[in-house]
Structures are given as structure tokens and as C-alpha cells.
């Protein structure tokens, strides 16, 4: 019998990929105080689009500091990775929401934690955020530079249309 196959197209990888075995996708979005409004508009639109594609999205927000009342990545890194996976899992009900964790201090600790475990930064991060298919790191250039060094990731830089921000983006 002849099998009928649909023609290949550019989006075929999205249809046949299995998110549970694809590994962790990490995106970086550069945060700057002057462009925060435009950046967050792009960030949340990006999250919404990734959700429509079936991704479970976690935002590590380096613009927000962890605290006792708003725990985040720093508190998660204090746990052993095997303990953390129980507490930070995306469930079936989370398909319609984006998890966001304050991460200003935790992102700075992540590199040291990875070195301590003898892993690269992305592998160490994956041990703590199991159950999510995409992690978006939203942080300043001072925070992102040591994290992304040698990882092959380039941050998304959102530039508002005015000339002042355009010139500032080249610095």
C-alpha cells in the first residue's frame, strides 16, 4: 500500500519535535533601565508565542531581586538539584501560564554553582528547571556577559525607535 505523506515545509521541525526529549532551550533578552517598557512588551509577546507553539516557558527575571516574600532563583540554587526538580516543575495546568522568578542574585550565583558541580552553566541550569522546555533569561549586560561567555548564545537586544536609544545600543 502507498502511504500518503504531507510535503516537507519550513515549520516541519516544530510539528515533529518532541519537547520532552529536545532538551532545554535558553533565550537571553538584554535588560536596560531606559528601554524596560519596550523590552517587556517584546518579552511577554515572545512568551505568549512560545506557549502557542506548545512550549512550557520560565522567565528568570534578572531585573527583580529575590527576597523572603518573593523567593526566586537564589533560593532554588540553595537546594540540591535533585530536590529542586520536585518543587519547580511545570504541570499540565501550567500550559496557559508563564512562570517568572526573580533572579538578580541567583543569576550571579549560577556560574559558581555550575563550576562547583563541574558542569557548564546551561547543564547546571537544566538540573534546576526540569519540566520547562524554554527558559528566557532577562538580565543586564553585566549579568549576562559571564553567563553567556562560551555558550554560543547571543542576547536579544530590543532597541526603541528613537535616536537616543539607537545610539546607546551600540555602546
Helix content percent band: 40-55%
Average of the residue pLDDT scores: 77
How many separate helices? 8
- Supply Rg: 18 Å
Give the overall silhouette: globular
Structural class, judged by helices and strands? alpha/beta
What is the chains' assembly state?
Answer: single chain
- Strand order, sheet with most strands: 1-4-2-3
Q: Can you count the beta strands?
A: 4
Residue runs with pLDDT of under 50 for 5 or more positions? 1-6, 12-21
Quick one: biggest sheet? 4 strands, parallel
Could you walk me through the main structural features you see in this protein, from its secondary elements to its overall organization?
With 171 residues, this protein is an alpha/beta fold. It has eight helices and four strands. The protein has helices at residues 12-16, 36-52, 73-78, 81-87, 104-117, 121-128, 141-148, 163-169, and strands at 25-30, 57-61, 99-102, 134-139. The longest helix is centred in the N-terminal third of the chain and has 17 residues, at 36-52. The radius of gyration is 18 Å and the shape is globular.
How would you briefly describe this protein structure?
With 171 residues, the protein is α/β, with parallel strands linked by helices. Helix content is 42%, strand content 12%.
Overview features:
single chain; alpha/beta; 42% helix; globular
Helix and strand topology:
Elements: H1 12-16, E1 25-30, H2 36-52, E2 57-61, H3 73-78, H4 81-87, E3 99-102, H5 104-117, H6 121-128, E4 134-139, H7 141-148, H8 163-169
Parallel strand pairs: 1-4, 2-3, 2-4
